[in-house]
Design goal:
Blueprint (H helix, E strand, L loop, with lengths): L1 H5 L10 H22 L7 H24 L6 H29 L6 H8 L19 H18 L1 H4 L4 H21 L9 H19 L7 H25 L3 H27 L6 H20 L1 H10 L5 H31 L12
Helix pairs in contact: 2-3, 2-11, 2-12, 3-6, 3-9, 3-11, 4-6, 4-14, 6-9, 8-9, 8-11, 9-11, 10-11, 12-14, 13-14
């Protein structure tokens, strides 16, 4: 009885705003990471932002998995076609914008740098063969791969809820072992994202799917405490490992990019689940509803103002460049959101809804 009380009742709510809040935190963290990476200043916290961005990108995969597990797909064919439109329309719009910006800035463009984006395989291509403003779009390659896996998970969704916890633990232990094995087997492949890490992102998506498909049985105060302790231990392990085995595949991919990130992301997910209620109010819900609608557009489009004012048309005044970037990100993101929303609605023959209202 006590265990049941300490678990959160999230299945009965229409919209889980704690998920939206976590997504907003992840989005802001990634934007700040790219912003500070561009910033021509070195300061003590710059590496922290780089690490934060790497961790928060993984949050998107966990959240996507959780949201996917919340609902059963009744028409897989219709669902995958809709997903293709929602991914490829923004992707092709970004390709067009990036090409125009680079041509206006007299930057060299090779056809070979465009082809991977046309087939959404940019995550599997070496960085030097990708368009500089669009290197962060590796995310679309991996999330589409996750959507394909979702079709398989959906087929067995009803059975997932019945699987014993010990079997779930064994399943993810086995998948983790495969990630470690892949990190060594495919270390020779020079892709934008290591192949083992791409597999790790898919595993994290699947973990998120299991969380919601199993009615959030994993979300409890006890598990939050366990995850917090593991996070503290992983910070120590990461620091010690960096000292002795830095620049090795095992440290970079297995310890830092997978195990450390996975534990931190799960801990953050549970902490937000149990603490969001302290800030929940109508204003916050309205804000989260707006950012929910535009989160993908903001993630995709924020790199363009940074590229334009940071690399192409610098004013040679760092302060002015920073102001232009900070003003350009919301303006360009809004325009990009309006464009892609209208195009997607027209292609899917749906009414155009630009801004959502919060669901109580």
């Amino acid at each position: 009885m006590r265990r049941a009380e300490e678990k959160m009742d999230v299945s009965s709510t229409k919209k889980d705003f704690s998920i939206s809040f976590l997504r907003l935190l992840a989005l802001l963290s990634v934007i700040l990471t790219h912003f500070f990476t561009w910033l021509p200043y070195d300061f003590a916290g710059k590496q922290i932002f780089t690490l934060l961005g790497a961790v928060m990108v993984v949050v998107f995969f966990l959240i996507s998995g959780v949201l996917a597990g919340n609902k059963k797909i009744d028409n897989p064919r219709k669902w995958i076609l809709k997903s293709i439109v929602k991914i490829f329309v923004p992707l092709y719009c970004m390709i067009f914008v990036a090409i125009v910006v680079m041509l206006l800035a007299n930057k060299n463009i090779s056809a070979i740098t465009i082809i991977p984006y046309l087939f959404n395989v940019q995550a599997f291509i070496p960085s030097e063969l990708l368009l500089p403003p669009l290197r962060h779009l590796w995310f679309l390659s991996v999330i589409f791969l996750c959507y394909c896996v979702n079709l398989l998970l959906n087929k067995y969704r009803d059975n997932i809820a019945k699987v014993k916890t010990v079997n779930v633990i064994l399943l993810f232990a086995f998948l983790s072992f495969l990630i470690i094995a892949f990190s060594f087997l495919f270390s020779f492949v020079k892709s934008h994202q290591p192949l083992a890490l791409i597999f790790a992102y898919v595993v994290i998506y699947v973990f998120g799917y299991f969380i919601s498909a199993r009615n959030y049985a994993f979300v409890s105060k006890r598990n939050m405490l366990i995850a917090s302790i593991l996070s503290a231990l992983m910070i120590i392990v990461r620091v010690v490992s960096q000292r002795f085995i830095d620049n090795t595949i095992f440290y970079t991919v297995v310890i830092s990019d997978f195990i450390f990130t996975f534990v931190i992301v799960i801990t953050l997910f549970l902490l937000v689940k149990f603490t969001y209620r302290f800030i929940d109010c109508t204003f916050v819900r309205r804000l989260l509803s707006i950012t929910d609608n535009g989160s993908m557009s903001i993630y995709l489009a924020h790199s363009i103002p940074i590229y334009i004012f940071g690399y192409c048309y610098s004013t040679y005044s760092t302060v002015l460049d920073i102001m232009l970037v900070l003003i350009g990100i919301p303006i360009f993101s809004l325009l990009f959101y309006l464009l892609t929303t209208i195009l997607i609605s027209l292609i899917l023959r749906k009414p155009i809804k630009l801004f959502g209202k919060p669901k109580e």
